[in-house]
User: Fold this.
Amino acid sequence: MWRKVAFVAVLGSYLLLAACAAPVPDDGAYRHAALQTSMAMVSALASGQLAAQTGLRGNSFSPFTDGNVTDAENDAGSVNSTFSSRQPPDARSDALRQKMLQALSDGTSALTDLRVAVRMGDRTQVRKALAEVGKSLKTFDALQQELQ
Amino acid sequence: MKAVLSMTLGVMTAIGGFVDIGNLVTSGITGARFGMTLTWAVVVGTLGMALFAEMAGRVTAVTRKPIFHVVRERLGVRVSLVNAAASTLLNLVTLAAEIGGVSLVLQMVTGISYLIWVPLAGLAAWLVIWRMPFQWMENVFGLLGLGMVVFVVALFRLPTDWHAMWHQVISPAVPAGQPAPTWWFYAVTLIGACIVPYQVIFFSSGGREEGWTSKSITEMRVNAFIGFPLGGLLSLAIMAAAVPVLQPRSIGVSHLGQVALPVAAALGKAGLVFVFVSFFAATFAAAAESALSSGYAVAQYMGWSWGKRHPPGAAARFHLVCLASVIAATAFILTTVDPVTVTIFAVVLGAAAVPLTYFPILIVANDARLMGKRVNRRWSNAVGTFFLLIMVVVSVVSVPLLIITKAGQ
Assistant:
């Protein structure tokens, strides 16, 4: 009796552990993750851009602009680190990874520059950082087209 | 004239008081992501809320007892324990979300981290519960919440495509490129945000605080059937303002500040001032109301003396439960859990548990011995049962959708 119970318990635990193990990602899954990452990055970049543009026009208060740009920067950083830690399944995916990492790094840096400029109240630097954010947005738009 | 003024004030308070952090977050997210395709969910949630609030208010006005008290008397201690426990737990999660919301609004205004504001928001909520007269609390914050009308004004200043929006309202469908489970998940959150259980508890207990009798039924009905739906319109205005500004830029809302961006873009600093004041009033009032509702639910179930009409010493255990709720909710938000995520979970869990609160109301409002000639009519039973069935479906699907969509991702 107890042997049967032990056998069922061991088998059950094995199946549970097997179910918990992460599936091996294939190229399709990796590309899908890259697409989702691009979309999240576009959201962060566009949010920071809109907040900074509104502030630049004098349509918002400094803490409000700063808060929105900082949130956008944090979101971008989180998106960046999540994708960076993802294991590419093959050489083709690794090429995509390199491309994505460069774009993610550029986007995050652009938002950091924007946050620094907004906090300093330097309108020239804000415009310059906004141009970088715009460039980064175009890169992600192109990446999305490629991945869809 | 005095009666008309009182009724107008009641309606305005109900409009301003309807929206809380749940509505702010879910309306912003859905407008930016799905346009106006989920308008129907706000309509269903608001009508359900108005219908059951009216029933609860009518029971309170006729029996001169709050709904929890009547439910316990009518359905017994064991059945109503499930109701009381579920409501108290939900009130706590909602209270945490509201305190987080107040703190986020203060962060938007000052730039100082919301975590610094959390204990102060909790303390202020407690002071208002302790010191401020009930009617003052309801009217002041309700009227300040009306400032959200600024979203309606913003819509007229933005490049709003009214035709496209109307098309989305009348022929709702999952937008291209969006996963259907996520669309349904947010439909559930919108319904959950409108029918939060604490609002019914507060509405009926507030009726006792204000001394409602059978003569107050007309005023109560006007509040429920006009005030709440107009409050629902404010939710839709927040959703609509996101459509021309956030959706074309593919901005997904994950912070409260993003919900206010359309108003800043349309109306500048003046508009933002209205947003700050009304967001603060809405979340702060909801924090006080959900803390009070915890006290109401527990005290009415236990048969203790309760209410703000009594000095704290005369309803000590009621006030103690309110204080304990505020402390627990404040401590929970201080763990640095994201208040927006807490809000999403609060509305989903609220949606899951709503039949537990609303089914007993339907039973009690149908009791002819208790209600006399004010018992539910056939039409209100038919409509009430229809909405209850919707709520049961919402309740069943809410948690699976939460898991499948990873909380709406």
